[in-house]
Amino acid sequence: MDLSPQISCCQARSEYICNHISLLALGADPSLTTIESGSMGTVYKIHHPVTSKAFAVKAFHAADGESIPDFAAAIQHEFSVGAAMANHPAFARSYALLTDAESLQIHLIMEHVPLALLDLLDRAYWTHDDTHCLFTQVLQAVLDLHDSGFAHRDLKPGNILLSTGGHVKLIDFGEAVPLDGNATSFTGTRPYIAPELYAGEVGGYDAAAADLWSLGMLLLRLYLEDDPWDDSSPKDEYFNAFLDNPHALLDGLDLDADIEQAMLILLDMEPSNRYQIRQLWDGKLGHDPLCAVDEAGMLHLPLEFT
Question: What SUPFAM superfamilies does this protein's entry cite (predicted)?
């Protein structure tokens, strides 16, 4: 893939953003603030030099042994899926993909969303109603992603951000795949990876059903202080204990019967027994009257975060 310097924008109106932010994104600017850093790259907070509006810039790092064409193609894929959802308010918007041939660096300019769900899970004021509303928003985002023809394949608290007004924003489409065939690669984040991926079945697996497992794990995690097990695999003793007697874990959570039943169906070892996402949306978890609704008709938590 050609890595000559270029700017690719989701929309024509983003050219203004691209043209004014590209030098900051590609340079070693002292104003950059690190948001997080991992094996795949580093995310910075950056401010527009004219308007001072905040953006997130993800600087990608090629994995050891990864070819430059494969590296560039994977990032282009992530950008393309994000661009397909660019106008959806439940997804952090991808504005531009910037490449630099000299440094072989690639930067993704995105909407900056200030709050990470992982950092908020320990807040004492979370109630069951708040948790229900949060999950309903995530469910709506995943439903719309599936309706657009993609499975996420890395649903977890770390890929869910929130605005200060309580709006959910889903991020990270690097593992997303089209829903027009079975997926084959082992991917995701433990313990949110569905058990069928560990089995490595010939012919692959249903990526939509794997997302439903991850939603079940997310729902369970929202009611717990920590992840209940490390791997959704028979090798994990805590996971085996859950399979033997799931009510031993769930009965202590004081859950609504409908929510507990939804968890059990989402966390069924047999993918075909899990809810279809539309079934889940049409049930109680998809219709939360306790969520606030903004002027655009979008659900959000009836809380203000700082």
Answer: Protein kinase-like (PK-like) (SSF56112)
In angstroms, how far apart are the furthest CA atoms of the chain? Answer: 59
| d(C-alpha 57, C-alpha 62), whole Å | 16
Model pTM?
0.87
Contacts of 233 (CB under 8 A, 6+ apart): 195, 198, 239
Nearest to 56 by CA among 137, 161, 188: 161
Q: Spell out the domains of the chain, with CATH numbers in brackets.
A: 8-111 (3.30.200.20), 115-300 (1.10.510.10)
Distance CA 144, CA 137 (A): 11
| Tens-digit pLDDT profile for residues 87-117 | 899 999 988 888 766 666 788 888 999 999 9
